[in-house]
Task: structure prediction
Amino acid sequence: SLIALTCVALLLPMPYVTMRPGPVFNTLGDFETKPMFTFGKGVKTYPTTGTLDFTTVSVTRASSHVTLANAISGFFDKNVAVVPKSLIYPEGQSEKSSTQQSAAQLDSSKDSSRVAALRAAGYTVTGVPVIAGVVKGGASVGKLRTGDIVQAVDGVRLGTDEALVKAVAAHHPGDTITVTFTRDGEKQTASIVTKPDASNPKLPRIGVTLGTKYHYPFKVDNNVGHSIGGPSAGTMFALAIYDKLTPGSLTGGKKIAGTGEMETDGTVAPIGGIRQKMAGAHHAGVRIFLVPAGNCAEASDGE
Result:
């Protein structure tokens, strides 16, 4: 019958996932019984008040199924987003791979927030380019490895991964460059013949992905485990580190939450799930929410 068919349709899995408000965590407090941030011996820290909460989004697992009824219900809830599954879990990407990517984003966020906060607090943080990966079939196969710390190109010392990119770009495809690097504490050199870029043959490439290894003036341990992933807690991480390393309270004793990806230069980049994060903060009793400039239009939509 029509009624039976309608019921079946409402229960059929749909190619969508839901994004709902998740829990909030105070970066000035504890995370799973340990202080969220701990500092090296002898580091001067200051008392803090209030809260600086980072916010989360609860996303349907890749292996779960959202029914048509769930999708319709979420569509009418302003704090729930129903989005195509491929947007969160790209075709062919396993749930394990997605989790690993999210964990890597969290680790990068921890580094960026440390750098930005320490520099803002007046400390010097330096960095050197590091090989994050070697492209299969690329020019550096057999020459460089993941984890190699690059010190110079053609004898010119480098301070950032951007400097390495510029040093390679100054050549032509087919040119040979000499890369000086450290591997397992041993200084080495490699001669690499650049290859043309796949999409622009005029550009030289050495076939690596890059990261940065930072040298900090002291230890700043972020004790958030990988049960939470992604880059969007970076801004609140940075504010907490800065608050603990400088006199006075950033919050004035108030409960404050927020979100935003933190760049090493202090730039706050926009993130996803802004409405769900705001709702999560509201449910936790927070009335002040820090929003990246790039998310302001979405955050104020419908308010």
Summary: The chain has eight helices and 21 strands. The two ends are 43 Å apart (CA to CA). Residues 6-12 have pLDDT under 50 and may be disordered. The first strand starts at residue 13 and ends at 14.
